[in-house]
Design goal:
The chain is an all-alpha fold. The chain contains six helices and no strands. It has one domain.
Length: 201
């Protein structure tokens, strides 16, 4: 979740900065992308119209959230470079594209799984909450990156256009501390161990 915080922070700093103000970063501040390994596992399931038992559901949630966390961490160094207005080389672009593709597949696979199967009692609503939260989080990061990129391009061209953050604000109804707390309380209640949200590190 740190990327989301820093993206918001950078967005508001850029909004407040005048044309002549620049925040320079040294090479040492940008994480290395060379050691990034693309996660080899995401959530997948071929099940349709099946009754899912509780143990399988717990494992499905864990796999989905752990995959999200690994993909989120893998994309972080690339996003840092983009935020610093540096260019990614061909290898880095290919890696980031693969991570982005896997992130979308992870979200879509889990969403289809919970919509097309019968889940155990107490799991339907919370699984939907988890799916909506993680998907909105990933979409929000993507939108913020695009806004930041367009904003800095406009500043460089001496264009001062208004930033439209209505879509971002709408997603904040889903991606917020209150919703995350509900998810974590559910994970604790069902004893689902996951690396997501900084847990079990």
């Amino acid at each position: 979740m740190r990327k989301l915080f820093f993206s918001f922070l950078i967005l508001f700093i850029l909004s407040a900065c005048s044309q002549g103000e620049n925040i320079d970063a040294t090479e040492d501040e940008i994480p290395s992308t060379q050691t990034v390994e693309i996660p080899g596992k995401i959530f997948t399931s071929e099940k349709q119209n099946s009754v899912i038992d509780e143990e399988e559901m717990k494992l499905s949630i864990k796999t989905y959230l752990d995959s999200h966390d690994e993909l989120d961490n893998a994309s972080y160094p690339f996003q840092e470079i983009i935020d610093e207005e540096k260019e990614l080389n061909k290898n880095e672009l290919e890696k980031l594209a693969k991570i982005t593709k896997l992130t979308k597949e992870n979200d879509e696979n889990f969403s289809n799984y919970i919509l097309n199967n019968t889940l155990p009692e107490e799991y339907q609503e919370e699984s939907e909450r988890i799916s909506q939260y993680i998907t909105a989080y990933n979409e929000l990061l993507s939108e913020l990156d695009e806004i930041l990129s367009n904003f800095t391009d406009d500043i460089n061209k001496e264009i001062f256009s208004k930033i439209n953050i209505e879509s971002i604000m709408n997603k904040s109804d889903v991606v917020n501390g209150r919703e995350q707390k509900k998810i974590e309380e559910f994970l604790d209640k069902k004893n689902i161990k996951t690396k997501a949200f900084g847990r079990d590190h």
